Amino acid sequence: MFTTHRITDELYDDNYLLIAIHSDLEGHAMAYAINSVCGLLLKRMDRDHYLDDDRHFASFDWEDQINGAYWCLIANSCEVELAMASGGLFDNDLSKRRDPLIREHREVDFFLKLESGEPGTMAAALAAIKALDRVKTAYPLEPQSLKSKRNLTF
Questions:
Q1: Residue 135, SS3?
Q2: Number of helices (H) and strands (E), helices first, in the chain?
Q3: Cα-Cα-Cα-Cα dihedral of 68, 111, 135, 71, to 10°?
Q4: How far apart are CA 112 and CA 147, in angstroms?
Q5: Which of 41, 43, 127, 143 would you call most buried, defined as having the most Cβ atoms within 10 angstroms of its Cβ?
């Protein structure tokens, strides 16, 4: 006799603030730009955020111990290589595909997540990020409205 246990959404902590960022910058350049305008110290995490064996997303974080806040910048897309068997001239062709972290917001390039912070801090960060030259737009998102919010839990 087997028992099935299901994990419900109630176990996931979605008590955080979220900014969606549209930009053509690479991850390290975006982290540097945010650090310079917001006064943060984001650095590359030791291990990327893995959803499965093939999909991993660049992540930068900083724990602000003075204000009791945790900041995390994560890329919304990753490149996945697929081996395609072909009977032609080249034996193994590689195909590349971009997979989003949050499927319902495919057009977003980065998410900036603030845990345990004050809404005023997030508003100031949002204004500073919008003022960056290479940022097309940035806006707040409600984590509760996301269907795939579990992907932001790590």
A1: strand
A2: 2, 10
A3: 10
A4: 17
A5: 143
Look at the chain and report how many structural domains it folds into: 1
**Residue 49 counted as domain residue:** yes
Distance CA 83, CA 121 (A): 45
Which class for 4: exposed (0-12), middle (13-18), buried (19 or more C-beta within 10 A)? Answer: exposed
In a domain, 3, yes or no: no
User: Where is 7: in which H helix or E strand?
Assistant: none
pTM over 0.90: no
| Beta-ladder partners of 92 | 85
Pairing of strands 43-44, 59-64: antiparallel
pLDDT block averages, 10 residues each, the chain of length 154: 53 74 96 96 83 78 92 87 63 71 90 85 94 96 76 61
Asked if 34 contacts 129 with a C-beta cutoff of 8 angstroms, the reply is: yes
Q: What is the DSSP letter of 32?
A: H
Decide if 46 is inside a domain. yes
Q: What residue numbers bound the domain in which 88 lies?
A: 14-144
| Environment class of 61 (CB within 10 Å of its CB; exposed 0-12, middle 13-18, buried 19+) | buried
